[in-house]
Amino acid sequence: MPGTLQIFTGHFVETAPGWSVLVRAPANTPRGPFQVYEGMVETDEFKPCPIFVNIRITETNREIRLPFNVPLAQVQLVPRQVYTEDQKRVAYIEQAESVSSEFPWERFTDTVHSEPHPRGRYAVARRKRDQRNRQQHRERFR
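Now predict its structure.
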């Protein structure tokens, strides 16, 4: 396709049955003069599976560099059951106007309209939750 480039990463992936990988742009990184296409690769079927990154050039008439020390893509393990047709029928998003009165509007309002949160609040909460889960796991298997 015009403006599209396929790059072989030099990596091969093999996953357990029922698992695939999502090849995508690195999370939380700014976009440059190109866009990384996302793609689901069923790496349990094709063993070992070469990983390619497909990019679309979005800026023309200039040199585009791909530095070797900056991630071009990331690979994320995904269980196949997450993206099967049956699962797609179960998931849906409600419009804000049609959300039931049981929706936690107070918590939502507190989150959206509250004072600016301290930096790293989410990361701290996540680490505390993970620490609690590890502790519960240890206690369960003593």
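The first strand starts at residue 4 and ends at 13.
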